[in-house]
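Following up on my earlier message about iron/sulfur cluster. Here are the inputs again, as you asked, copied directly from the submission form:
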Amino acid sequence: MATTFVEPFVLPEKMRPKSSGRKDKPKKAPKEIAVITDGCTGCAGSPACVEYCPMEDCMFWVPDADFPPFGRILVDPWLCIGCKKCTSKGPDGAFLDGCPWDAIVMETTVDFEARVGVKL
Ligand code: SF4
Ligand code: SF4
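Thanks, got it. Here's what our run produced:
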């Protein structure tokens, strides 16, 4: 895979903005999950993706300690239900093909588990 992914198996502290909504953890891992790539710019602190995620605390802000107030978004792979809502829409009214920076990709759970070394 050409893109270098941030490995989310050691999740940093979840800061705001965070997704909100369903608090039920998936009983069974979905076939694929969303992964944020290094292309994430953090949308200058106003992530366009987070509001579309229906799962509580699934998408969250991680500040860049070296370059405040910049940061980025990560996905909690244990909470992602693979709905793709974060990748199929842009800001309200604008239908974009993925996040504005193409920074969110879907990866099969099998591939993710093998790559990262965790069981979802
Ligand atoms: S994943 Fe895309 S939409 Fe979300 S903060 Fe990063 S660049 Fe912005
Ligand atoms: S695929 Fe769905 S559940 Fe997963 S991060 Fe995107 S919006 Fe949230």
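One observation from looking it over: Residues 36, 40-43, 47-49, 72-73, 99-101, 103-104 surround iron/sulfur cluster (ligand 1) (CB under 6 Å). Hope that helps, and feel free to reply on this thread.
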